[in-house]
Specification:
Radius of gyration of chain B: 37 Å
Number of strands of chain B: 18
Oligomer: heterodimer
CATH architecture of chain A: 3-Layer(aba) Sandwich
Helix content of chain B: 40-55%
Structural class of chain B: alpha/beta
Number of domains of chain B: 5
Low-confidence stretches of chain B: 206-217, 373-405, 533-568, 676-699
Distance between the termini of chain B: 113 Å
Shape of chain A: globular
CATH class of the largest domain in chain B: Alpha Beta
Mean pLDDT of chain B: 74
Distance between the termini of chain A: 18 Å
Largest sheet of chain B: 6 strands, antiparallel
Strand content of chain B: 5-15%
Helix content of chain A: 25-40%
CATH architecture of the largest domain in chain B: 3-Layer(aba) Sandwich
Low-confidence stretches of chain A: none
Largest sheet of chain A: 6 strands, mixed
CATH superfamily of the largest domain in chain B: Response regulator
Largest interface: A-B, 29 and 29 residues
């Protein structure tokens, strides 16, 4: 079976781990439980008639205590760049992380997930900004790890992109 | 052997597993396998106790690439993995970290089970990140409250427009003493309410308060060198605490003229914000220098630090944006540099940042020198409206100006405003002032009305149904391309941001009166712009030459000798124009006497070069300034020359110029005679009711 490494990238508390847990286990825990380090999970999926084992690297949100090393991205086939719609600065930091990935010469499919769609009334990231990003080439999905909105769809879409579909 | 055994036992007790790398992905344990290791990687264990760790864990597979790189090098120390989490078959999570080392010539991999310390580390990280998130949340809350506060303030301020207007109207009536006292109380209390609103802003909104007041109050003038010295004095202790030297560049010549258009308090905040930024990014034992340089008509102020320079991925727009914060050493709320930007730009300046070639960052701003007349509390002359952004700036910034107690003439004014109350209020004020006023309720109606009737000024609301003020203005300007006329258009608007101003300039508006408006601001703006564009007294006037076709709506008639036009008593006229303000009158006279020879010389040069376009501009400029002194002869001659220039027909221009020179000579002589005297006489203030006004007339 094909194995495809996917990295979850984004700053602190945007919901990377929650998205993975929702996708792998179908559950969501209230409250913020900070991640230390990297956690790898696997999940087989079937997309476009093809069996693929997704190897999900849930990488901690970078801050002054933990710095993300480029070696973590080694061998990845795609990544989900996660931002918290209720915190404008998470988008700037995510785009900075994306630039660092590009700077290492890695060019693989990526999707921008604007998470916490269940709190859309509190979003600080406006439609104008997202439209601008979409026009610059970003594929953007609004997700909610809490409600499950678009979570499976996001992994499915990235898998298809990694398969070149 | 026994010692080794104790050492291995010690490591095992601490949760360590040691492996020697044998090459080709194979590892041999040093000592016994710890139990956790067997639980996790049972499937990867070989019969000969070897283990292929790259097959045991995706993260180890990744890390071993770095580890092999380390083992193949002569580097000292170790290569370290991140913390990672594995799951035992039972589902229990195990937290690990690994290090590659050289030990006694062997390539050793050390894997540590963090069970004993992970919980504590998790707790610490959680607390730190919770605090960080809470800090971010509080900042966002503060920002939201700031914005909410401004919205509330805006709503509270709005009714003041109508209240003040009503009191202004009432004050123009013949009131009994008792009623006048009540009106005065109303005026006083509405002013007090405004002060209280501003007070709330100052108290509860540290940075954005400046933004609000900057839009309302006018820049006067400020000594930027004094502000720089105050900044050095005020901030030196904070810099010294971090072993950073703060200085004013020694090459700055403090004896020079460093007066700019701005005000002290906001200038202090600009320097303060820039210095706070420099302090944040400057390493110890470096110097931060404030510099000042003359750049033509502007002053360039700079704050240079010796820090790391600007991040490569940060644009100027991002840096000065609202709520923008630096990545490595963010400030408070992301408002400081935004405040600097809006303030500097509102004063007609620019601001920026760059990485210095010698290293470090330069934050800089440029501000125009204050005009001499502005420093003395007066504007030298009204500027020409058409296509000149300055006209918009002048009225929008409400530079201190002489207030006219009586309009130079009765103007025909079209008020385009969709709100009935506002339209009636403005119309009534203008009628009381002695102007002829008609009202329409949208831009389309304004265009139709202008087709039918001549108006000196259109007072244009921006937001109206059917056709808004900007669209109507654009349509008027488009039409003027073929007619050559110029309709004065003044916006009446609550939109006072820089962006709004640029939109108005782009549309072709000549000026604007901000809401809530002051009665005198309304009068001054309209009348000054009207005076600048066409200073024609209501009495019989000198006419342009037969060939002249210009913006003026008056029919072209044969040229009249300027000498035949009587000259009004210059002293009386000037005092009347300045509302009896002798200081202002003196200042205007001084500026005029200094500038008049240059203006005349410019006209002479244009004529000598037969440059009609230049003649148009230079004659127009002189016409505006002599009008302030009521010299009708000079106005008439300048007006004729202007028309000749505009129509590219210079026949008879020399004669007009001689007439102008004669009139100017006479005016200068009169001014010199009265200027040195220290007058105490003021003219009586009279109620304004020009004979041409049609009281209550309405269209």
């Amino acid at each position: 079976m094909l194995e495809k490494k996917i990295c979850m990238l984004g700053t602190l508390a945007v919901g990377k781990t929650s998205l993975v847990r929702r996708f792998i286990e179908g559950i969501y825990s209230e409250g913020y439980h900070t991640s230390i380090g990297v956690k790898v999970d696997k999940k087989p999926v079937r997309e476009a008639g093809q069996e693929v084992k997704l190897v999900l690297w849930d990488i901690f949100g970078e801050d002054r205590f933990q710095k993300v090393q480029p070696s973590y991205w080694r061998g990845m086939f795609g990544y989900l760049l996660v931002v918290d719609g209720t915190r404008r600065n998470t988008l700037d930091e995510a785009l900075g992380l994306h630039q660092r990935v590009l700077d290492t010469g890695i060019k693989v499919p990526a999707i921008l997930l604007v998470n916490k769609a269940d709190l859309a009334n509190q979003w600080e990231i406006g439609d104008d900004r997202l439209t601008q990003l979409a026009q610059s080439g970003w594929e953007i999905m609004r997700t909610s790890a809490k409600t499950g909105e678009n979570v499976d769809a996001a992994f499915s879409r990235l898998t298809l992109k990694m398969l070149g579909k | 052997m026994a010692a080794k055994s104790i050492f291995e036992s010690f490591l095992a007790a601490q949760g360590y597993a040691l492996f020697e790398y044998k090459g080709s992905g194979v590892f041999h344990p040093i000592g016994e396998y710890p139990k956790w290791c067997q639980n996790l990687w049972k499937g990867a264990l070989g019969r000969d106790r070897s283990i292929r760790l790259s097959e045991a864990s995706p993260l180890l597979e990744n890390f071993l690439i770095d580890a092999e790189g380390f083992w193949n090098s002569n580097r000292e120390g170790s290569a370290n993995s991140p913390v990672w989490i594995e799951r035992e078959p039972s589902g229990r999570e195990v937290q690990l970290e690994a290090a590659a080392l050289h030990v006694d010539g062997k390539n050793v991999l050390l894997i540590r089970n963090l069970a004993s310390t992970y919980a504590e580390r998790q707790k610490l990280y959680q607390a730190a990140r919770d605090s960080l998130l809470e800090h971010e949340r509080l900042l966002r809350e503060i920002q939201k409250k700031e914005i909410l506060l401004h919205c509330i303030i805006h709503d509270l301020s709005q009714p003041l427009t109508a209240m003040r207007g009503c009191f202004n109207l009432m004050s123009l009536q013949d009131l009994s003493a008792e009623l006048r006292r009540m009106v005065e109380t109303g005026e006083r209390e509405s002013n007090r309410q405004e002060q209280m609103i501003r007070g709330i802003l100052q108290a509860f909104s540290a940075d954005l308060a400046g933004q609000q007041t900057a839009s309302e109050s006018a820049p006067s003038d400020a000594d930027i060198s004094a502000a720089a010295q105050r900044a050095v004095q005020e901030f030196s202790p904070a810099f010294a605490e971090k072993q950073i030297k703060l200085q004013l560049d020694p090459v700055v010549d403090l004896s020079r003229d460093w007066i700019i258009a701005g005000d002290d308090s906001r200038l202090d905040r600009i320097f303060g914000n820039l210095l706070e930024n420099a302090l944040r990014y400057s390493p110890p034992n470096t110097t931060v220098t404030i510099g000042l340089e003359e750049k033509g008509k502007q002053v360039l102020a700079s704050v240079d630090d010796q820090g790391p320079g600007l991040p490569k991925d940060q644009s100027r727009d991002q840096m000065f944006a609202l709520f923008a914060k630096g990545k490595d050493k963010p400030g408070k709320a992301g408002l400081g540099l935004y405040f600097c930007k809006i303030t500097v730009e509102r004063w007609g300046g620019t601001i920026g940042a760059e990485t210095r070639t010698k290293g470090g960052t330069r934050l800089w701003f440029r501000l125009p020198h204050a005009a001499k007349s502005t420093r003395d509390g007066a504007r030298k002359e009204p500027s020409r409206g058409q296509g000149v952004p300055g006209a918009v700036q002048q009225s929008s910034t409400a530079v201190t100006r002489p207030r006219l107690d009586k309009p130079g003439r009765s103007l025909r004014i079209l008020v385009a405003e969709d709100t009935v109350e506002n339209r009636e209020l403005v119309s009534e004020l203008l009628k009381k002032r002695g102007h002829l006023v008609a009202g329409v309720s949208d831009g389309r109606q304004a265009l139709d009305e202008l087709e039918k009737n001549h108006y000196d000024v259109v007072l244009m609301d921006e937001q109206m149904p059917k056709m808004d003020g900007l669209e109507a203005t654009r349509a008027i300007r488009q039409k003027e391309k073929s007619s050559g006329k110029h309709q004065l258009i003044v916006a009446l608007t609550g939109n006072v941001t820089e962006e709004d101003k640029q939109q108005r300039i782009a549309a072709g508006m000549d000026g604007f009166v901000p809401k809530p408006f002051e009665m005198h601001t309304l009068f001054d703006t309209i009348e000054f712009l009207a005076a600048g564009a066409q200073v024609i007294p209501a009495s019989p006037m000198p006419a342009p030459p037969a060939a002249a076709k210009g913006r003026s709506a008056e029919p072209a008639t044969p040229a009249q000798s300027p000498a035949s036009v009587p000259i009004e008593d210059v002293e009386a006229h000037l005092l009347r124009t300045t509302g009896g303000n002798e200081k202002l009158a003196k200042s205007l006279t001084k500026s005029f006497l200094a500038d008049a020879p240059k203006r005349l010389a410019a006209i002479r040069a244009a004529l000598a070069a037969k440059n009609a376009a230049k003649l148009d501009i230079t004659a127009h400029a002189l016409k505006g300034s002599v009008a302030i002194f009521g010299s009708q002869a000079a106005v008439a001659a300048a007006k004729n020359l202007e028309a000749m220039g505009r129509n590219r027909d210079l026949s008879g221009a020399d004669a007009q110029f001689h007439a102008l020179e004669a009139a100017m000579k006479q005016l200068q002589a009169e001014l010199l005679a009265v200027a040195p005297q220290d007058k105490t006489k003021t003219i009586p203030r009279t109620k304004t009711k020009p004979p041409t006004s049609r009281k209550g007339s309405k269209k």
